[in-house]
Amino acid sequence: MDKIIAIQGVQGSFHHLVAQEYYHQEVEVLECMSFAELTKSLIKGEANEGVMAIENSIAGSILPNYALIDENNLKVVGEHYIPIDMNFMAMPGQKIENIKKVYSHPMALLQCKEFFKKHPHIKLIEDSDTAEVARRISEKGSTKVAAVASKAAAGLFGLEILAESIHTKKSNATRFLIISTKKKEPNGDKIDKASLKFELESKRGSLVSVLNILRDFNLDMTKIQSMPIIEFPWKYSFFIVVIFEDYAEFQKAMDILEVMTERLTILGTYKNSL
Fold first, then answer.
1. Dihedral angle sign, alpha carbons of residues 28, 32, 38, 44
2. Which segments of 72-205 does DSSP mark as H helices, in order?
3. Which one of 1, 56, 153, 272 has the minimum C-beta count within 10 Å?
4. 98 secondary structure, DSSP code
5. Which domain holds residue 99?
6. pLDDT per residue as tens digits for the range 216-230
7. What gap in Å lies between CA 235 and CA 195, rounded to an integer?
8. pLDDT digit string, tens, across residues 77-122
9. CB of 147 within 8 A of CB of 125?
């Protein structure tokens, strides 16, 4: 049976592009209008795996998605990076000065804030998905409104691009996780990256001690994200990403961190895609 891949958004969205690139084929996708809906589709068995954005080089981390992965016991089975090219699009024959409103995902609007500072007459309205807005404008034939989305979405829904590459930093990229309810089974790929989560008391030197273990076992930490534990004031969860050369060394480090930290969870081990 072919895999069904849950994506946030619709065809033509950046999540859809990631699904196509990661699986190297035209895949069957399940369109979800929110990350919570995407998560539910995996838990219910409606999809085999899902594509979830986790951080952007301009806008930073998508914090609620860390919680969704953790609270629903999901596993990280892969990752994929893509350059994000934001484009300003509308029904054909319009001009930027005639556009009154623009709809898009809040992360997309955040990545393009410098562009919109130059066009203060345009009202920014947050929406669920970049490509879904493009589809809606196309289906309704709406004028004086625009979307911020990919060139693929413009082509798919017959919109005209009024301004290309409007994101603030031209080196804009997003990291996406491939998630599942099952951990990744060995399939011949080199496993050299891991996503971890643990808890620490707010004590002097507790985090430094963890970082020293990573160093001693040649683990290179590429990401750390702290989140407060609501039920326990001044106690924190840490989500970290490490890369390594020797899986045995990685496992030794995990054995020690199991003792040093609370609730150590290996969210997933997978191949580094950078």
1. negative
2. 106-111, 113-117, 130-140, 151-157
3. 1
4. G
5. 87-163
6. 999 999 999 998 888
7. 20
8. 999 999 999 999 999 999 999 999 999 999 899 999 999 999 999 9
9. no
Q: What is the CATH number of the domain that holds 119?
A: 3.40.190.10
pTM of the model: 0.87
d(CA 257, CA 254): 5
Which tokens sit at 163?
A: 């301004």
If one counts the domains in the chain, the total is 3
Total residues found in the chain within this entry: 274
Cα torsion for 104, 70, 36, 146, to the nearest 10°?
A: 0
Count of Cβ atoms closer than 10 Å to residue 122 Cβ: 19
The token pair at 260 is 């040093």
Q: Determine the Cα–Cα distance for residues 178 and 77; give it in Å rounded to an integer.
A: 6
Here the tokens at position 76 are 């990280």
Looking up tokens 């998905």 gives 129
Sort residue 45 into left (φ over 0), alpha (ψ -120 to 50) or beta: left
Residue 134 CA to residue 222 CA, distance in Å, equals 35
Residue tagged 């005639």 (tokens): 98
Residues 266, 209, single domain; the answer is: yes
Distance CA 26, CA 71 (A): 31
